[in-house]
Every structure is written in structure tokens, then in C-alpha cells.
Amino acid sequence: MNRFEGKTVLVTGGNSGIGLATAQAFAAEGARVVITGRDEASLAAARETLGANAIAIRNVTGTVAAARELAQRLADEHVRLDAVFVNAGIATFAPFTDIDEKAWDETFAINVKGPYFQIQSLAPLLNQGASIVLNGSINAHIGMPMSSVYAASKAALVSLAKTLSAELLPRGARVNVVSPGPIATPLHEKLGLVDDAAAQLQSQIPLGRFGKSSEVAATVLHLAAQESGFIVGTEIVIDGGMSQL
Ligand code: NDP
């Protein structure tokens, strides 16, 4: 399929994991892809895989200034966006009693404040009929111990998909959210989710395996494409049944 021929898409956190797989899936279907992230080396490596006209921008999300800078950089390059995957995020896992102000602020800055002001800043650059997809998590819906601050940040995104849809519809844009369950990405190593901990988590997934980044990417592309034009303000859960069965 070539659903994104002539389209331009932005993937935040497009240099790793789910974001990289989604950026590559968009590129494979003809899109010009813009990615953001923090790490220069993986940004450059990712850009190499995305075709000659891909753009990689170092942009550390979490502040209004960073959101404005990103939009200004895109405007300077005359970029207009047909789809945005607001994916960059961090996972903070610790007992509720150990979460301090720094961990709270960092999680909400990167996972909520950054996306909120990115969308606000990017709104003038959206083409008619644009689609915004947020990356949530099934942690927004399940009471997993140690996930309180992360889960709350992702629940905020589920809410934003609805309210921002209502506000952006007059501009012809749709906002939806995907909520993945455990997906095998570098995030799991960053969290120390290996060996016994990984096996324990896997045992909670009815399908008996971790999800793949490509499986999330496929759903994001569906929500970004015209074929899903009647899907607005809603959530698609991609979790092997973990939050459902
Ligand atoms: P990765 O750690 O592989 O990717 C995280 C991405 O976010 C990286 O590209 C990283 O860039 C970027 N990022 C993090 N913080 C910032 C920041 N302050 N500014 C800019 N970029 C930033 O993990 P995943 O691919 O697994 O995670 C992607 C998203 O998927 C996250 O929002 C996560 O919460 C969500 N998710 C993941 C699940 C999983 O099981 N893997 C399940 C449910 C949701 P850099 O590498 O340069 O730091």
C-alpha cells in the first residue's frame, strides 16, 4: 500500500522503539517523515533508514519553549503536516510511597505537558483532514502496582484525545489515542524488565507474548490514514488481551 504518498508526517520519539517502527512504516508507504528525539546518534541512524527527504530534529520535549521551537523549525522548513504521532515518553515505575516531586514533574512534563503544547504549537501547521495519534498505555486502565505516576500521565492522554478532538474538528483534524500493552522495545531494558521480571509480565498477557512495535505502527497508520476518517476522539487498545480478559 502507498497510503501516504505526498503526505508529510511527524513522529516524536522517532529514533527508538515504537516511534522508529512507526516512522519506518510511514516511510515505506511513501510519506516524508520528520522525527524528533533526544539522542543525536540514534536520530542520525534512524534518519538514514527513512529515505532521502526525511528530517531528524533534536528536540527535548517537556517545555512550552521546546514545543514552540519544534513548530518554528518546521515552519522554517515549510513543512505542513498530514499526520502527527505524539509518541515520545518515559516510563517511571516505583512504589507510590517512593515517588518524589522530581519524578512526578519529569513524568508529567515529558508525557503530558510536552504533548499538550506540541499539539498547540503544531496546530497552525496541520493540513485539512490531518490526523493526530497519541501514544497512551493500558496502564491508564489497569491497577498495576508501581505504575501510579506513569498511569496517571497516560490517562491524561486518553482524556486529551477527546477534548482536543472537539476543539480541532473545526480545523478538519481528528485526534485519537493508541494504548499499547507490553511491547518489546528498548524501554523494557531501561526499566530493568529482563529475565524473571520479563517472564512474570509476559505471563499476564493472555496471548502469551509481548507485542511488536510493528503491531502498534500498523494501528497508528490506520488511524492516520483516510480509511479511518470516521474515527474521532477514541482509543484503540493493543495489548494481547491484557486489560480485557
Ligand atoms: P523507547 O524508550 O524505545 O522510546 C522512547 C522514545 O521517546 C525515544 O525515542 C526517546 O528519545 C523519546 N523521548 C523520551 N523522552 C524524551 C524527551 N524528553 N524529549 C524527546 N524525546 C524523548 O520506548 P518505547 O518505544 O517503548 O516508548 C514509546 C512510547 O510508547 C512511550 O510514550 C511509552 O510510554 C509508550 N508505551 C510503551 C509501551 C512498551 O511496553 N514499550 C507500552 C505502552 C506505551 P531518546 O531515545 O533520544 O531519549
Show the helix and strand layout.
Layout (H helix, E strand, L loop, with lengths): L7 E4 L5 H12 L3 E6 L2 H9 L6 E4 L5 H13 L4 E6 L14 H22 L3 E10 L12 H21 L5 E7 L5 H5 L4 H8 L10 H12 L10 E4 L7
Parallel strand pairs: 1-2, 1-4, 2-3, 4-5, 5-6, 6-7
Helix pairs in contact: 1-8, 3-4, 4-5
Bound molecules: NADPH dihydro-nicotinamide-adenine-dinucleotide phosphate.
What can you see in these coordinates?
- This protein has a single domain, classed as Rossmann fold (3-Layer(aba) Sandwich), CATH 3.40.50.720.
- It has 8 helices and 7 strands.
- The chain has helices at 17-28, 40-48, 64-76, 101-122, 148-168, 186-190, 195-202, 213-224; strands at residues 8-11, 32-37, 55-58, 81-86, 126-135, 174-180, 235-238.
- The relative contact order is 0.15.
- α1 (17-28) crosses α8 (213-224) and α4 runs parallel beside α5 (148-168).
- A 7-stranded parallel β-sheet has the order 3-2-1-4-5-6-7, with helices on both faces.
- It is 42% helix and 17% strand.
- By secondary structure, it is of the alpha/beta class.
- The chain binds NADPH dihydro-nicotinamide-adenine-dinucleotide phosphate.
- Residues 13, 15-19, 36-39, 42, 60-62, 87-91, 110, 135, 137, 180, 182-183, 185-187, 190 line the site of NADPH dihydro-nicotinamide-adenine-dinucleotide phosphate (NDP).
